[in-house]
Structure formats: structure tokens, C-alpha cells
Backbone:
């Protein structure tokens, strides 16, 4: 319990000390170079299974331009984390809030280099609302927790992957994370920080949340525009006015007492990533970095505050979507 309270106001830090299985924790680093030709997602993490043979650390790499994905697996003993700050080491690679350093040589693949993050912008943390989870962060034993460690920041440095030099200097990045027992039974996630105006960033997700022998469709959305964070979430009292899922797009509209947010995301092909169940890391997550999201923020009175199209959007539409939609219509 002490560790739980200690890490509550520090979502970026490793939460797995003394956790009993099943437990997973993973950080998500999105890197897009200045030319927007090179788009990568790097996902370091650890999976703690009740079966010792399945416990391991990992670094996933998604090439968003091609959809090619790699899963580099390490012994659980190769994972290390600081207790007083966000700093994680997997093998010879290191990850923290302001930089990553990669040294991966595995399965005939080589990925090396260093990238720094300048001007990171995390989701605000207070005692009442310690991060994007709001007061739900105080609830122990939830299936999955979420954190946004930086909406948008500048990149400096580069990587060499399979002999190709990737210069990310002047590009833009994004960082988030998940931890808990398992990914949800169904979810939609979208994120983009490539709008016409630098600094605008959107992250939005909805998922089936188990709750007291039942479930509900919980959602959390943050739109950062002109230095202000517009929050729409189950815990803020916002409501879903429309949610439509088609083969080629997702149309989602939410509103609270003051504002309305409309999002129309164009789906795109991606690559397969590994996601956690309670038993194992299972290859079931189809993620793209090639989606696009049309965004419109307006006051309830009708005045439009922002419109734009987010490029190179990360997007996942996964699981039992019929159940997710059915729960949404019941609320």
C-alpha cells in the first residue's frame, strides 16, 4: 500500500515493485522526424506472470511507415527501475522522462542510438486528480491504469536501425503508459500531435471497464490547445453524444456542460503488437501510425474554438466492439 500511495502522484514511475501476478507495465514513446517520413513507436515494458516461464521484459518497435513490428524479449532479470524517478533499464537500453538510449542486438536486428526530449508536457497531476485517470487513480485493483507523460515535445538525436540512419532532430514526440493486470476486453484509442499548429495534441480512449461485477464504457479525452487542456471524461461528467465505428472510420462526439468535441478518425492499416492478457503477452493489437483525425472543439452556444486535422495519428480499435457499443447505449 505504501508503494501504491508513493507512486500515485507520479504516473511515469514504475508501479510494479512488490506486485503479485498477473501484472504488466509498459511505456509508449512515439517518435516522428521533422520530415514526417520516419514514424516509430517504441514500447519497453515487463510482464509478470504466475507462470515463471512466461515472465519477461520486452522492447517493442513499430515502424509506422511500413507497419513492420518487432518484439525483442529479455529475461525478467534484465529489467530494472528506479524507485524515486522514472528511469527504466532493459538490457543495455535505458528509458526516462527526457531521453531514451537504445542498444538492441537481437534476432539479427540492430537498433542503437540516443534521442532526447525537449519541453515535455505531462498531463497535470494533483491530489484530487493524479493524472489522466482522475479520481479513478485512487481505486486499487483496477484492470488497467493509464498515464500521459507528455502530450508533445521536440526531439533531438537519432537512431540507427538495420543499418539505416534515422535523424529525429527537430521532430515531435509523445509519451504515455499503461499498467495493471490486463488490457480491456475492448477499446478505441487515438492520439495525434501533428496539427497545422505546433503544440496542439489530442489523446482519446474509451474501453470496457470492469466494475463491481458489471462493466461500463469509461472514456478519457484530452485536447491541448493554446496551452490549455480541455478534458472530457467519465469522471468529469462528460457524456457521449455519438459513437459510430465503421470499417474505414470512427466518429465520436462528446460534450460536457460547456463544450462539445467532435472527432472523426480515418482508420488505416498498421502492424501487429503484443498486448497483455492475464496469462501472457499475446499478439492481438493492431496499431497504426497512419490514421488522421478531424477535430472540432466548440462552445455549447455554437462558437468554434478550434478545428484541425491531426496527421500521423496512432490508432487502435480492438476487442469486443459490439459489447462496447451496447454498454455505451445503455448509459
Residues:
Amino acid at each position: 500500500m505504501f508503494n501504491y500511495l508513493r507512486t500515485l502522484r507520479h504516473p511515469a514511475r514504475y508501479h510494479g515493485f512488490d506486485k503479485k501476478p498477473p501484472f504488466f507495465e509498459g511505456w509508449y514513446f512515439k517518435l516522428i522526424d521533422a520530415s514526417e517520413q520516419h514514424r516509430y513507436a517504441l514500447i519497453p515494458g515487463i510482464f509478470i506472470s504466475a507462470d515463471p516461464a512466461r515472465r519477461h521484459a520486452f522492447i517493442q518497435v513499430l515502424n509506422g511507415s511500413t507497419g513492420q513490428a518487432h518484439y525483442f524479449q529479455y529475461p525478467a532479470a534484465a529489467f530494472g527501475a528506479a524507485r524515486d524517478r522514472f528511469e527504466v533499464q532493459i538490457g543495455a537500453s535505458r528509458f526516462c522522462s527526457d531521453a531514451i538510449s537504445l542498444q538492441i542486438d537481437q534476432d539479427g536486428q540492430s537498433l542503437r542510438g540516443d534521442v532526447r526530449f525537449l519541453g515535455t508536457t505531462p498531463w497535470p497531476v494533483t491530489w484530487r486528480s493524479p493524472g489522466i485517470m482522475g479520481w479513478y487513480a485512487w481505486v486499487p485493483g483496477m484492470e488497467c491504469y493509464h498515464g500521459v507523460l507528455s502530450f508533445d515535445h521536440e526531439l533531438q538525436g537519432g537512431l540507427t536501425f538495420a543499418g539505416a540512419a534515422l535523424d529525429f532532430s527537430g521532430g515531435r514526440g509523445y509519451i504515455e503508459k499503461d499498467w495493471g493486470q490486463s488490457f480491456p476486453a475492448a477499446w478505441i484509442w487515438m492520439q495525434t500531435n501533428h496539427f497545422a499548429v505546433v503544440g496542439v495534441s489530442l489523446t482519446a480512449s474509451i474501453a470496457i471497464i470492469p466494475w463491481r461485477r458489471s462493466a461500463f464504457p469509461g472514456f478519457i479525452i484530452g485536447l491541448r490547445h493554446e496551452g490549455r487542456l480541455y478534458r472530457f471524461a467519465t469522471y468529469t461528467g462528460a457524456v457521449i453524444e455519438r459513437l459510430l465505428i465503421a470499417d474505414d472510420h470512427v466518429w465520436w462526439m462528446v460534450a460536457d456542460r460547456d463544450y462539445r468535441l467532435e472527432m472523426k478518425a480515418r482508420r488505416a492499416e498498421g502492424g501487429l503488437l503484443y498486448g497483455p492478457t492475464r496469462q501472457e503477452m499475446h499478439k492481438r493489437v493492431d496499431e497504426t501510425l497512419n490514421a488522421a483525425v478531424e477535430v472540432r472543439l466548440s462552445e455549447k452556444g455554437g462558437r468554434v474554438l478550434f478545428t484541425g486535422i491531426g496527421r500521423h495519428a496512432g490508432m487502435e480499435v480492438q476487442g469486443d466492439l459490439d459489447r462496447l457499443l451496447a454498454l455505451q447505449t445503455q448509459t
